[in-house]
Amino acid sequence: MIVAAYFWRIDARKIPFALLRMALDRRVLRRSKGVTFAKLLGCGKGETFTPADADPRRWGFLICIDEDELNNFDQSRLVTRWRKNSTSEFRALLETISSHGKWSNRQPFIAKINSHGGQVVAITRARIKWWQNFRFWKAVPPVTSSLKESEGLISAIGIGEAPIGLQGTFSLWQSSQALKEFAYNGKAHQSAIMATQKHRWYSEELFARFAVKEIRGQILD
For labelling alongside 68, which of 46, 48, 74, 82 has CA 20 to 30 A away? Predict the structure, then answer.
């Protein structure tokens, strides 16, 4: 089993196409051969995690798939349709190092390796209690500023299943050590963790770390 993340950039005139496919592709994606977990994702700047962050010209999805079925999936009608309607594509193939928490009441990522010496990806995802959104939004900017200034960060974007309440980040790092330095020694991040424990603003959360097996394209272009 391998984790594959796809992100596409589209022209503004293709936004209606993207909105339509977000509505229609959910069932097709989940029923694709070899897929055990799938999420369609909107993307954003990942700065405030408010609706103002959303970028209607960037979309993607994340899947767990049997590695033997990956090539067929990559050439499927589902993927080629997005490819033909986009101006750029980013794909990352990932192997799980660690994963804590749940996504839609599931633990989709099963650790395959103990350590990795190359680039890593971190995925965070949370379901925010609706009455905690304003408090959460207020706490986020210092963390995102610290993230983007972190040594070893290659790029990061916001991801979400909805503009409000179901949000996260996808970040690419030079090494596991760089990611750990931000996660455990960053003052803003540690303050946010303490605030999370105090206010309990998540009804569900997940943090996963992955080894990068292969990257195609640029996550930010």
Answer: 82
